[in-house]
Amino acid sequence: MEPGTSSFPRYVVKYAMPESPLVGIIMGSKSDWDAMRAAGEMLTKFGVAHESRVMSAHRTPSVVAEYASGAIGRGMEIIIAGAGGAAHLAGVVAAHTVIPVIGVPMTSALSGLDSLLSTVQMPKGIPVATVAIGASGAANAGILAVEMLAMSRPDLRAKLQAYREEMAADVKKQTLT
Ligand code: RP5
User: Which of 32, 79, 92, 108 is an S-S bond match for 27, by CB 3.0 to 4.6 Å?
Assistant: First the structure.
């Protein structure tokens, strides 16, 4: 089923670049968006087509299963999944697809430690590449996705190199008063 059809719930938040997305960014709740938008901003910076949606492993399990199962058919190469609390979204997505899944633990009542452990501690066989808690993790998930895509795209690798040089130049300029 194509996203945007009537089977997708109305409360799904959708943001898509015009091309078909190489990266899907999903999150368990709209309340995750403040942090998760950093993943999309990073992909936009590198010119990588992506989309962002809300879907929940426990509130809309069939939507998650359909999205993950259909990702390869839609040309997607990586899924970034952010969730908080008993954060099983990334693991459930990984169970339904063989493209890499990057998990982003969201801050929570337990400061994100619960989200971190439930995202990172996948049992053997179904990996989830887990990054740091919150917005920094979401930004790094975006960069990691670009690095994965860059394995077969020299233009992206060059952009990553330039980004590193930009960061280094920025640090070298910093002074303490
Ligand atoms: C998780 O529960 C979401 O990923 C979010 O981090 C957390 C709280 O969700 P809301 O109650 O704010 O919708 O499923």
Answer: 32
Side-chain-side CA neighbours of residue 137 (13 Å): 28
d(CA 59, CA 70): 19
Taking the model in full, what pTM does it have?
0.90
- Ligand 1 center–CA 54 separation, angstroms: 10
**Ligand 1 contact, 29 CB (< 6 A):** yes
Minimum-distance ligand 1 atom for the alpha carbon of 30: 13
Counting atoms of ligand 1 from 1, which one is nearest the CA of 31?
12
Q: pLDDT for 119-137, tens place per residue? A: 999 999 999 999 999 999 9
